[in-house]
Amino acid sequence: MSAVFSPPPAALPTDKELVLKVIPMPADTNGNGDIFGGWVMAQVDLAGSVLPARYIQGRMATVAVNEFIFKQPVRVGDILSFFSAITRVGNTSVTVEVEVYAERFSAQGQYVKVTEARLTYVAIDHQGRPRPVPKHNAPA
What we know:
Blueprint: E1 17-22, H1 37-56, E2 60-70, E3 79-89, E4 93-103, E5 111-123
């Protein structure tokens, strides 16, 4: 019988904003009993859109998942905290980094980094075409 790998607890980031908290449920599991990666990706996409929405001020679409790394499995009952920071504001797009930390059901108060990603969102008009990101609406 092998020991289960348990990474050391991680400190929550202070340079990113908490944008989402969610608890995965049994219906979100894969065949191994862990949370399905696609479910995690969907939550990261939602969390990633929070800060760009402040810049874009209207419709937007995910144009790229530039990087997505699953570092540890996510389990039923984990409390997931999604932290985000803007890394680039372009003419029509905003790029954001998202880090996901799990507070394990069995180890409350301790966090493990489970996922990190970088996504790009593009501002779109009502016809779905790229439009400029408003410069006057960008937060200071």
